Amino acid sequence: MADHSSHDPLAGIPFDRVPPSGAYGAGGAAGVTVATTDTPFIALVVARNGFAASVAGRLGRAFGVEVADQARAAIGAASTVVGTGPGRFLVLSKTEPDLAGTLRALLGVEAAITEQDDAYVTFDLAGDKVPDLIAKGALIDLDPRVFLPGHAATTVIAHIGVTLWRVHESGWRLLVARSLEASFTRFLVASGAEFGLRLENGTAGRG
Amino acid sequence: MRYSFLSLLANGLSGQSRWTPAWRDAAPKPAYDVIIVGGGGHGLATAYYLAKVHGIRNVAVLEKGVIGSGNAGRNTTIIRSNYLLPGNEPFYEWSMKLWEGLEQELNYNAMVSQRGILNLFHSDAQRDAYARRGNAMRLAGVDSQLLDKARVKAMYPFLDFDNARFPIQGGLLQARAGTARHDAVVWGYARAADRLGVDIVQNCEVTGFIREGDAIVGVETTRGAVRAGKVAVAVAGSSSRVAGMAGLRLPIESHVLQAFVSEGLKPVVDGVITFGAGHFYISQSDKGGLVFGGDIDGYNSYAQRGNLPVIEDVCEGGMALMPRIGRLRLLRHWGGIMDMSMDGSPIIDRTPVPGLFLNAGWCYGGFKATPASGWCFAHLLAKGEPHETAGAFRLDRFRTGHLIDEKGVGAQPNLH
Amino acid sequence: MRIPCPYCGERDAHEFAYLGDATLTRPDPAAAEAEQAFHDYVYLRDNPAGAHEEWWYHANGCRQWLRVARDTRTHAISGAVAARVAGEPA
Amino acid sequence: MSTSNRNRLTAGGLIDRARPLGFSFDGTRYRGYEGDTLASALLANGVRLVGRSFKYHRPRGIFSAGAEEPNALVELRSGARREPNSRATVTELYDGLEAASQNRWPSLAVDALSLNRFLQPFLGAGFYYKTFMWPAAFWEKLYEPIIRRAAGLGRAAEEADPDHYEKATAFCDVLVIGAGPAGLMAALAAGRAGARVILADEDFLPGGGLNAEAGDVGRKPAPAFAAEMVAELMSLPTVRVMTRTSVFGVYDSGTYGALERVSDHLPEPAPFQPRQRLWRIIARRAVLAAGATERPIVFGGNDRPGVMLAGAVGTYVQRHAVLPGQKIALFANNDGAWREMLAAHAAGAPVETIIDVRTEVAADLTQAARAEGIRVLTGAQVIATAGKTLTGLTVATASGTERIAADTLAVSGGWSPSVHLTCHHGGKPRWEEAIAAFVPGTCPPGLSVAGAAKGVFGLGACLKDGAAIGAEAAQALGFTVPALDVPDVADAPFALTPFWHVEGSKGAAFVDLQNDVTAKDVGIAHKEGFRSVELLKRYTTLGMATDQGRTSNVTGLAIMASLTGASIPETGTTIFRPPYTPVSMGALAGHHRGKDFRPVRLTPTHEWARAQGAVFIETGAWLRAQYFPRNGEKDWLETVSREVTSVRAGVGLIDVSTFGKIDLQGRDVGAFLDRVYINGFAALAVGKARYGVMLREDGMVMDDGTTARLAPEHYVMTTTTANAAKVYQHLEFCLQVLWPELDVALSSVSEQWAQIALAGPRARDVLARVADGDVSNAALPFMGAIEGTVMGGVKARLFRLSFSGELGYEIAVPARFGAALAQALMQAGEEFGITPYGIEALGVMRIEKGHVSGNELSGQTTAGDLGFGRMASTKKDYIGRTLAARPGLTDPDRPAFVGFRPVDPSRRLRAGAHFLPLGAAPTMANDQGYMTSVAYSPHLGHWIGLGLITRGPERLGERVRAYDPVRGEEIEVEICAPGFIDPEGVRLRG
Ligand SMILES: Cc1cc2nc3c(=O)[nH]c(=O)nc-3n(C[C@H](O)[C@H](O)[C@H](O)COP(=O)(O)OP(=O)(O)OC[C@H]3O[C@@H](n4cnc5c(N)ncnc54)[C@H](O)[C@@H]3O)c2cc1C
Ligand SMILES: NC(=O)c1ccc[n+]([C@@H]2O[C@H](COP(=O)([O-])OP(=O)(O)OC[C@H]3O[C@@H](n4cnc5c(N)ncnc54)[C@H](O)[C@@H]3O)[C@@H](O)[C@H]2O)c1
Ligand SMILES: Cc1cc2nc3c(=O)[nH]c(=O)nc-3n(C[C@H](O)[C@H](O)[C@H](O)COP(=O)(O)O)c2cc1C
Ligand SMILES: [Zn+2]
């Protein structure tokens, strides 16, 4: 673990590498902590024409959450269903190894399913300063009074496409395309340094 | 009054009291041989060459505001003839030739300044594309040089050669390219046309056409009806609106392009530089302002102003290319409405409506065309035949498929 | 400029890709004069100064094609609907 | 350190005398205090000459106390942090500040170019348009370089800006711009109602006019009242107060641009702090409370250091406890300026004379002045000034002229509301006769104006107006606004007689101080017909300097109006454009510079490739392995040739994950693909892949790639790397807009799958060791596509495809297994000498094989040009079919795709060379096409090329010239079929 105290928190870190785990920026208690993980199982459900509501209902019943066809994250104990577009749901699961298979069985002809387990890197951001940090890249209203737990958005942060949702009071989850992990982490480090940022890169399944 | 050191001296000694109007502020007469709609660079140049080259002097230029208040007065002043396609290249080179003698021709210093344009490339594919273009230019008898990185560095050592996301590999240089003082071009043509008898009528908006049968025989304006043998439209960003009054739909969308100027500075950039890995180009005006721009905003607009995303995009490109400009300040930014044609190239042609002629589709690149556009449009109006260098700029090329698509992006104006 | 995406809510225009006039209909390729009709469809535009119906694709969002009503003189946006539920072209 | 501070009052002001700050100007060291600006500190130290003007290099001093400053521009800091053209009047003093004067040589006091003033009679408006034309060649060589060196003001830093910048976005219900009395009240009204409020002020000390106000507000000194308001606002949970933040532009849909100067008041940014931050503030409503700017009166010698706006004199005295001079005179046309001077006098400023153009001035004012021993001259005009910095004035009165000693002349011609932001959407301000000023006209949607910005000049009225407008904004959004107690302040009437220009005064009378535009220049413009304000501006450069004519525009147009005889509203103003005050480029770029200019996409095997010694190259957003050099290889060509040879002789692998991968599911996928590709896909068998070509509707080729059918209702499409996003968007357009009835669901799976191409005669041997199932020719024939597993259970898709012309496969595995797959293949292939290869070798092999790629898919080529004519189905409609039939696209003379070989095999080919018939002159008319791609073929031992040439396929065997003057080369080439290797395709079917 490296502790970076220079003026430029990214000094010496090659741009084509994920910055190493460690504390960046201002000292003291970190204003933001960032943990990257490979969420084990992700699938994208795209409802076929006319089935969006039905698909939402089935997903909700199957995972024990309230799913509507809108930009919300329905967060269950083992699974989360995130709306990313009309009739489009990203399903994340900690426990379903063949998530796509399960979903195919569940939804039959009502939806097209694709495996997306490896498409994203998950960034878990925690701390009071998270909205301020994300506001340095995104043009959406993240005020904690407006963007409530369970709210989700698919948007751009610093030229990088992101799907994000607020998990609970001070926890936020961001999905970023795997190929952009290094650049996105650089953005977080550069922008979070003023608050003090602690980065923990997960290694599960990587490589 | 002819302009010279002597006239300057005489006026200086007489307390600047003897100057006369650069052009008459004419009122519209009832009829003209040719009416030119639009007092931008193109309209005024057309009037000048009609009078000068073809002896047609009973001509009026009708301008809805003051002359030069359109794109002629708000562009980034780059002149060049570094085009790729045979439909374009000879025309722009003809324009370049006219620029080269413009001041003496007009007796007006338009500050035509051939300090060179350098188009940077950042990949092998881009290099090959520029080589293709540079060779095409040579075939048309135009100067071009393909520079490697070392030569680019020697010219502009302060570009980011060490830490760039898209490293500079080299550039295509046209040394004869450069800039001209935009307003002076307008005023110079206006003054010269006026001297030859052309009426320049300002605050005179064309609001409709007078028809006899199919043919157009004059215009309705905010200052009354004016009849004409021929009506020539050169209204740039307003082409669709004016053509619409004659019942024509054009292969054109109007889009906004923004431009930017910094606070005045001692010399920073000598020539014109374009960034090949983003949307940014820059030169420095003789007054010291860095004049720069980038991509169009990308949506239909008549508002003459743009939005932050493109401003940010342009400045990101600027900082990526020239990290020394971080502490320099943007002084002003504005927008112009361009007539983006469906293949990115212009139209100088008759229209299906008898008596109506069209000069349009100049996109973000018509300033450099001003002299040749005027020359060729005047030729068409006088002779009834296109000028040899402008023969490809036909309105029916979209129907026949003889497109002049320099960028190869097809019928999507916001990508040209 | 902010576009009211019916799914995502109001979003800055830079999240979208623009395609222009949304009042055009792809012609019938089998009809007589199809080439002329395609020419008009692909190349000719009303290009109005004022109310304009236009396509915007929410590329960095819900991936919907939206039909947006916007004034080209003021950039004021009066509404946006998804292409798929938009029904017949306006 | 000089400790003089001789012009500092011993008490009062909003400076902290306990916190002295050292600074230097032109190398001399001085002292100021916290709360000073550079300008106030210079004045405190008696420094009056601070700069040289743009054109005539005339000595200039400090003219204002705010953002409108035209004269006191300095270079701030040094080295890589040098900031030219910094206004001393808004530069917050910090310890160690270094400033230098600019636009002078060799020194500020002795400036060679000040000789220009002798040429001044000849250098009137537009002089350069009238001369420097002879001889023509002298312009670039002689005249222009001189002009360029003389022009400009400060010098840019020569090194990269070392500081960090960032951008951020904030949302609010009500944005209040300006924290003067009106803004504070507006923010309070909306904030107490519970609205989310942002209050932004460009000053480091909120309060606006209150900070220079001598009187009390709500029984407290005005600055204390302001501080109390700010404290309450900061305590409200929904209010955010942003100081040092200029709102610079009004963009669409309630988006405001603002610049926060986070660290400019520090010697350098604190660790991990940006220097500045660009804000995009998205506000449902906004209240502009930006105040007003005082304007001068134009008279001969009005640019002498010591001539200063009256309000600025007041601000320096009240706020900074600085006396701008020891002998102060006022020249004005309005009551407000009198009050300002009386208050300054009361605070200790030696005001000796008041000169007013009006013959009648309110008796209370004249009496008050006389009571203080101030001499009053009414019906009088200043007609000349004297001194290097001001020492005296000549005043014309009814009884003649007289000279008056003064080191400071306060001037006031009235006030102009700061309407700038109201004009950013093209709104035109309206002339208000009562105050002789422009007030806001049509405002951008959602923006209302309060206080002096709207022409409400009394302090009491500003407070009330602010409260009302703030309440209105909150109410419009549905908030209930509690009643607000607005302190009562009795406002004196605002009495003014419009007066612009002392005609017949001696010496140059400057309208635009920074650009050296004089009243005479306005006269020249008038004579020459540049009478419209827009022409006046452009011809004379009036209002085009760094201050954008804050103090000169109205005066200039008033002078023009008096010449034309038109009224001021008929004459109109020029348009105000953003930014309201200049904004640094660094802030507008934010984080996105250097390597972070744009994000980089890394392939799943990036680290693996690095470990293999790869050299990487940018291809669009991606970074890809270009080649893998080995020790002893002398150049890239040797490496690439080795890689190609190894593949063709044995086997190699390359990461091709960058291709776009689109998953299509549904009943109608086959029908859909038939409409987007020129060739047919509905009949493609399950388990097979097919190459497809896609057109734009205008008939040009858009993209190509293979699409495989994995199940009856399930296809996966690959696109080129460059066009991945474009094709996806296009397919969504077709489905959502053109054919919403089709049952097709699209998903991008580009990121999910790592894809590795394995090629070479031993490819199957290698694959067999890694795949878990049967990969024999029977199980996986050419163009086969099957799902299975590899490496003992890793889900995989296996495609038998070949770009190289060799027996080839593409193996897709979930992205996190990409590197493992590469490793496994390397291991499995070890005995066959497997080699990783990069995109250079890939390119060589595809050129050898004659496949088209990015260089050929230029958007200017048709399917016919590229040899795909026969692929196009005639039995169905597809996008682009109709317009591809236009004569221009079917002309048999169009350049068409073929191969080229050098007649002399030792010669190198170059992409971008044009083709000319042998012996033909190098002219455009003889141009027949160009070389699109070239490679050195190790297989053939010479360079080969692909290209487009007129009627190419009919001319195989013919020789032409490849003409490449930009690289000084020209060689003879032979036209050949595009496949240089295995044209029959035996290898790939093997
Ligand atoms: C920001 C920007 C940067 C540019 N940079 C460059 C560059 O660097 N190099 C380059 O070559 N080109 C550039 N261009 C393009 C170039 O400015 C234009 O192509 C060119 O000026 C158009 O021709 P014009 O001068 O005749 O047009 P304009 O000056 O726009 O003239 C058209 C005139 O028609 C008038 N008009 C419109 N409707 C009517 C009516 N109904 N009745 C009467 N009059 C009417 C208008 O008021 C206007 O004055 C740029 C354009 C913009 C907007
Ligand atoms: N003496 C006179 O005749 C006269 C004339 C006019 C005004 N005044 C006085 O001036 C005051 C006017 O009050 P007010 O509240 O309308 O204005 P103000 O001048 O007190 O406050 C305006 C504030 O807005 C800020 N500001 C301006 N533009 C900005 C921008 N774009 N972004 C961020 N901040 C910006 C300024 O820094 C300033 O603090 C009153 O005290 C009034 O009496 C006096
Ligand atoms: C080449 C060029 C240089 C310019 N330089 C300046 C400048 O130094 N100062 C300035 O205020 N505006 C400058 N402008 C911008 C004009 O003030 C004005 O914004 C532009 O011509 C568009 O007109 P509009 O803003 O009236 O619509 C420049 C414009 C051009 C085209
Ligand atoms: Zn959306």
UniProtKB/TrEMBL annotation, chain A:
Class in the EC hierarchy, top level: oxidoreductase
Signal peptide limits: none
Listed InterPro entries: SoxG (IPR007375), TrmE/GcvT-like (IPR027266)
Keyword annotations of the record: Oxidoreductase
Coiled-coil portions: none
Keyword Hydrolase (UniProt): no
EC number: 1.5.3.1
Pfam families (alphabetical): SoxG (PF04268)
Keyword Oxidoreductase annotated: yes
A GO molecular function held by the record: sarcosine oxidase activity
Tree of life domain: Bacteria
Name of the protein: Sarcosine oxidase subunit gamma
TrEMBL record, chain B:
SUPFAM superfamilies the UniProt entry points to: FAD-linked reductases, C-terminal domain (SSF54373), FAD/NAD(P)-binding domain (SSF51905)
Gene3D superfamilies: D-Amino Acid Oxidase, subunit A, domain 2, FAD/NAD(P)-binding domain
The entry's keywords: Cytoplasm, FAD, Flavoprotein, FMN, Nucleotide-binding, Oxidoreductase
Protein name per the record: Sarcosine oxidase subunit beta
Catalytic activity: sarcosine + O2 + H2O = formaldehyde + glycine + H2O2; sarcosine + (6S)-5,6,7,8-tetrahydrofolate + O2 = (6R)-5,10-methylene-5,6,7,8-tetrahydrofolate + glycine + H2O2
Cofactors, names only: FMN; FAD
Enzyme Commission number(s) of this protein: 1.5.3.24
Organism this protein belongs to: Ancylobacter vacuolatus
GO molecular function, one term: sarcosine oxidase activity
InterPro entries attached to this UniProt entry: FAD-dep_OxRdtase (IPR006076), FAD/NAD-bd_sf (IPR036188), Rhodanese-like_dom (IPR001763), SoxB (IPR006278)
Main localization (coarse): cytoplasm
Lineage: Bacteria, Pseudomonadati, Pseudomonadota, Alphaproteobacteria, Hyphomicrobiales
Residue ranges annotated for the Rhodanese domain, each copy included: 34-78
Compartments, as annotated in UniProt: Cytoplasm
PROSITE patterns registered for this protein in UniProt: RHODANESE_3
Family note: Belongs to the SoxB family.
Automatic annotation (TrEMBL), chain C:
Gene Ontology molecular function: any one: sarcosine oxidase activity
EC code(s) of this entry: 1.5.3.1
Keyword Metal-binding (UniProt): no
InterPro entries: SoxD, SoxD_sf
Protein name, UniProt field: Sarcosine oxidase subunit delta
Coiled coil: none
Alphabetic keyword roster: Oxidoreductase
Keyword Oxidoreductase: yes
From TrEMBL, chain D:
Record keywords: Oxidoreductase
Group of enzyme by EC: oxidoreductase
Limits of the Aminomethyltransferase C-terminal domain: 897-982
Limits of the GCVT N-terminal domain: 606-876
EC number: 1.5.3.1
UniProt cross-references to InterPro entries, sorted A to Z: 2Fe-2S-bd_N, FAD/NAD-bd_sf, GcvT/YgfZ/DmdA, GcvT/YgfZ_C, GcvT_C, GCVT_N, Sarcosine_oxidase_asu, SoxA_A3
Protein name stated in the entry: Sarcosine oxidase subunit alpha
